[in-house]
Each structure stands twice: as C-alpha cells, then as structure tokens.
Amino acid sequence: MTGRTLVIIALGAFVTTLDNTIVAAGAPSIAADFGLGLGALQWVALGYMLPFAGLLPVAGRLVDRWGRRPTLSAGLLAFGAGAAAGGVAGSAGLLVAARVLQGTAAAFLVPGLLSLLRSNLGTRGRTLGAAVWTASLAAALALGPALGGLLSEYLGWGWIFFANLPFVAVMLVLLPSTVPRVRDPDGPRPPVASMAVVTASLVLLTAALAELGDHLRAGIALLAAGSALGGWFVLRERRAPARLVPAALTGNRVFTGSLAVQVLWGLGISGIVFFTPLLHQEFLGLGPVRAGLPLAAVAVAVAAAAPLVPRAVTAFGPHRTVAAGLAVVAAGLGALAVVNHVPALGPRLPALVLIGAGSAFTTPSTSHALDVVAQRHSGTASGLLTASRELASALGVALIGAVLTAVRAVRLGSGAPAGEALADGYTAGLLAAAAATLAGALLALRVSRVIPPRSRRRVTNTRCRNSFAREHAESPD
C-alpha cells in the first residue's frame, strides 16, 4: 500500500499544481482566440486560484467528516470534468467556469491526499511522502511553463487542459485499493457559518491582490472587505462552541509554527518562480518555451535531494533540517541576485540548483506538523497547511511584483533600458525573497523543535521521581 500511496500523492500534487502553472504559457493563445485584454485574461488563472485557496480550510474539515475515498473520488471526477470542459470551451465565460470547477475540486483533493501521509504511512514513510509531495510540486512548477508552451504551439491551447485527464484516470484506478472506505458521519457537524465567512474572506483577499495593480480603488475595497470578514471570523472562532479550526491545532506551537514557516517559504519562492520566465524573455531574449526551461533545474535538484531528507531528519531532527533547507534556499536566491546583471543563462543555473536542493529539505515541516496532531484532525490540518502555502503563493507574487515594479519604474525614470530596468527590479525582488526565507529559517529553529522521545522519557521519569519524593516528604509517616 505504501508504494501506491506514494504514487497517488505524487500524481495528485503534480496535476493540481501543474494546472495552476501550465496556463500561463498558453494565455496569449487564449487571449487571441477570445479577444481578451490582460485584465480579463487573468481571470482564467484566478478562476482556479480563488476557489482553490478559499475553500481549502473548509474542505479539510469536510474530508474528515465525509471520508477520504468518497471525497477523493468525487474530487477527481469533478477535476476531470472541469479539464475536459476547459479544453472544448468556446467562450471566455465557459472557460472561467471550467476553471472554477477545477479549483473547487482541487481544494478537496489536496487535503484528502495530504491526509494520506498521516493515515497510510509510518513515521519514516511520512517524511518520504512529504518529500515526494514537494518534489512533485517543484516538478509541476518547473515544467508547467515549458509544457504549456509546447502544447499551445504544436497542438493548441485546449490540450493544456486535456493533459490533466491521464493523471485523473490513473488515480481513479489506484484509489479503491489504496484508500480504505472510512467515514465519520457521527462526528461533530461542521460550522457552516464560519466556513462561509472564512471562505469569503480568503476569496476577497486573494481577489484584492489581483486588482490592486490595475484598479486601486477596487483592490482597496476588496482588501477592506476581506480583512473585515477575516477579523469577524477570528472573533467567531474564539466564542463559537463548535470551531472550524479546532483548539487542539491553534494551541499547538509546532503546528502553528509550521504554518508560519510555510508562509515565509511561499513568500520567498513563489514570486520568483512566477517572474523568472518574464525576465528570461525580456532580458535574456529567450522564446516562451526556452524561457521556462531553466526552472527544470529547480525540479531536478529537488528530486535529487529528496532521498537525503529522511536521513537528515534522523540525524539532525526536523527543525534543524527545515532551517538548513530554508537557509540554502536563501543562499540560492542571494547568489541569483549577485549574477542577475549578467545577460546569460549559464551563471544562473547553480543558484537555481541551490534553491531546488534547499526546498527539498523544507518538506519535514509538513510531515512534522501532521505528526503532532491527532489523526481525527489530519484532514483539517492538511487543509490549513495547504491553504497557507496557496495563500503565501499569491502573497509572494504580490510582494515580489510590488518590489519589482517599484524598482523598475525608478530605473525607467532614470533612463535605463527596459530590459535592464526589469533585471534591476528582479534583483530587488530576489533580495526581498531571500530575507523572507531567512526569516523562515530562524523561525523553524525556534518554534518547530520538540523534545526527542528519549529526552521526553527522562523528563517524565524525573518529574515522577520528584512528585514521589514530594508526596513522601509531606506524609506524616
């Protein structure tokens, strides 16, 4: 079962992430066919991203209640239907609707798949499973732009969506023999009102990020509304008898620390991945397909380093392993900033390898966070972990984009050529990303450390002896 579980985890991570990156390369073809401007075109991507990010906390809770197999089966069928509809869509409205269906399905697939780390795998298996998950994510991030360019150029943009169907078919075949039919219908009913409030808040906040650049007033209004709903959700959670996020999770320092570490990693890496193909096209003069290919070095490095992760966790502990991985990612981002002024691809590859290798060693943050929560909360915990990463991705693009745009505007104002101005903005974005990642490394050392089992036994025995001594000292006999 372990092998099949790892295959399903790898395919699920790859296809749900690929669907979020592969569209970028086919966007110009979609815009040409439907006559879309840039403002309308971005909703082809946001149609997937918004329900994905917004529904993740809700979906994690419902996975625990409905059971993994029925939820994953329904999610896969809906994801495949959305992919098929997107491939044959004859209008922008239908395409966005198909993307919304896919994003909604992905929101239920991801926490269901991540919860298999807790339910199907042992301690070492969870570490390997988390490494496989992250390697698959990195592969999808790296290969998405190039694969999307190839499919759009030679087969048509519809095949960007049809490419999902083989992955869905294989997972549906493996599912019955891998995931037991377990449900908890008698568990506590989900707090529907809290679900609606937090989902609306996350959707509004994510939409605000998309609107701030072109429509400042609309973006500010969305940001204010999303923040208000988010504050209301926090107040509801504190007072509600049935909480959407169990107190056992919010009171767990290791779990909440892992959420924060994932956010900082996402802030540091996502914006760089998003803007790298643009830099390669405008500054290095590469075509759309070749511009995305260097990101494959990140995926190769993640895959090569992943087998070393379980040994590192055993030798150094998860907190030191994650901190070291984040530090290496920060070093890679800094190295990329140092050579970014060189208009050549070769000097960038070692830095991209460092970023990928370091990212592989951040994977124990996920498995370690799932290890410290009860199995009945594994779906909710998985949804929160994934939601933090997805939201951090959006925030990362916004953060790096804001830094890049501001520096680029200053350089253009001083008369610099467009390519050089973009490169300078990208360098500033790299430094901001390195700072966020380094902060994540320091946080991982502080909040993710737990007492090893042997030390816990020694502490427990000492406390028992002290308690026994106190009782006898206070006894009149």
TrEMBL record:
One of the record's GO molecular function terms: transmembrane transporter activity
Main location: membrane
Residue ranges occupied by any Major facilitator superfamily (MFS) profile domain in the UniProt entry: 5-452
Keywords in alphabetical order: Cell membrane, Membrane, Transmembrane, Transmembrane helix, Transport
Location in or out of the cell: Cell membrane
Membrane topology according to the record: Multi-pass membrane protein
GO terms under cellular component: plasma membrane
Lineage top rank: taxon: Bacteria
Membrane-spanning ranges: 40-59, 71-90, 96-116, 128-151, 157-179, 191-210, 216-235, 255-279, 291-309, 321-339, 351-370, 391-410, 430-448
CDD domains xrefs: MFS_MMR_MDR_like (cd17321)
Protein name listed in UniProt: Major Facilitator Superfamily protein
Species this protein is from: Amycolatopsis australiensis
Lineage of origin: Bacteria, Bacillati, Actinomycetota, Actinomycetes, Pseudonocardiales
